[in-house]
Amino acid sequence: MTGRPENSMEHIAWTGNARKLSATQLKERAARQEGNVIPLALAGGRPKCPKHLSKAARKEWLSAVKLLAARGVLDAGAGATLALYAVTMSRWLEAKADLDARGLQVDVTKATSKGELYTVTEINPMLKVATEAEAQLLSITKSLGIDPSAREKVKKLKDAVAKPGTVAAMFPQFFDGKTKR
After folding, report:
1. What residues are paired with 123 via a beta bridge?
2. Which H helix or E strand runs over 123?
3. 122 — phi, psi (to 5°)?
4. Longest C-alpha distance within the chain, in Å?
5. What residues have CB less than 8 Å from 74, skipping those under 6 apart?
6. pLDDT single digits (tens) 73-122
7. Domains of the chain: which residue ranges?
8. Whole-model pTM?
9. Where are the alpha helices (DSSP H) in 33-109?
């Protein structure tokens, strides 16, 4: 038996450093407990453009990446959300182009049970595609911080601050956001 397990960094933060561990010892313990470390901020970086995107979607993806990078809120973890945004935006643009070209109503030729053809005016099916894409775009733009109402909620990566009461807030000298753990 190896003895009693060591206290976690969070436990030490809440109860105090009773064993008077040095800064080096605390840093070593934090490194050992890597799975329990709460990072101060996400590392910034540019995600890779997925290969499955169409030409139009890739164009939208690149414009969104440029916008988020200019604002300082782009990180490598946003790749999947950006891909979804790009696909949805290109789908919306395609549906909108069809609506502009053919209008809200289209003539559809149908056949009776006897095989006689007749023409009916129906709502353009692309209207539903455009409406659903618009709803999805509103949600995605809020999560990315592109929407003006959500822009204030998305913090720049370099300005991220540890939440009070977390290990990172208690021991800021060990969690500067620059070192990988």
Report:
1. 105
2. strand 117-123
3. -130, 165
4. 93
5. 44, 45, 46, 47, 65, 68, 157
6. 787 778 889 999 999 999 999 999 999 999 999 999 999 999 999 999 99
7. 1-40+161-181, 44-157
8. 0.58
9. 55-71, 79-102
